[in-house]
Design brief:
alpha+beta; eight-stranded mixed beta sheet; 29% strand; 7 helices
């Protein structure tokens, strides 16, 4: 079980009563996270869907591009301050995905992976995805969040559906066929009550 704690203040933190733990998202930095993300990208459960089992120098170049890209923000997801997941959140209108449907200006997208094998199979994907979606909907103009997991990734598609995302269509993206899915703000609000989930 990883014990390294991040010292960077989270942008969003909640105590999720369903898992009896604090879930938080911290801005990714090269100094703290490069080696960690490189390790995660080379885990067998990540390789088929992210296809980034690269040398650390190539991962560093990729992350530098992410950090310099004004249309997206990268986060490390932590449970009780233990880093366990990587997230990329982006404005769809400025992303290649915006070419695959009539994207609205405030639509936000999500990429994610659970990196630490210790945390797999513990029912954490849904609580983390729910928390990130809750965080994205704090931006009032956003009425829809979007994702496009690999169409072969049945487990992740199932998690997105449980969270409130609805499948739209398969889209041929560079390097993969993605399952385009939308989460409507009102549907999400009807499904999940912060007062029931968090304290």
């Amino acid at each position: 079980m990883p014990s390294l704690e991040t010292q960077i203040q989270p942008v969003y933190k909640v105590y999720d009563k369903t898992v009896s733990a604090y879930l938080s998202f911290h801005p990714m930095t090269l100094e703290k996270d490069l080696e960690r993300i490189h390790r995660w990208m080379n885990h067998q459960h990540v390789i088929p869907f992210w296809q980034m089992a690269w040398p650390i120098e190539k991962i560093e170049a990729y992350l530098k591009k992410v950090l310099a890209d004004s249309h997206q923000t990268a986060y490390i997801g932590c449970i009780d301050n233990k880093p366990m997941s990587y997230w990329e959140c982006y404005w769809v209108i400025d992303d290649i995905l915006g070419k695959y449907y009539p994207a609205e200006r405030a639509d936000q997208g999500i990429h994610l992976l659970i990196g630490e094998p210790y945390f797999l199979g513990k029912g954490l994907a849904l609580p983390f995805l729910r928390a990130m979606t809750m965080f994205q909907f704090q931006h009032t103009p956003t009425t829809k969040t979007v994702t496009e997991p690999d169409a072969r990734n049945a487990k992740m598609i199932h998690i997105f559906k449980k969270c409130g995302f609805e499948f739209q269509k398969n889209v041929d993206l560079p390097g993969k066929t993605g399952a385009l899915m939308f989460c409507d703000r009102q549907k999400f609000k009807n499904m999940w009550s912060p007062t029931d989930l968090y304290q």
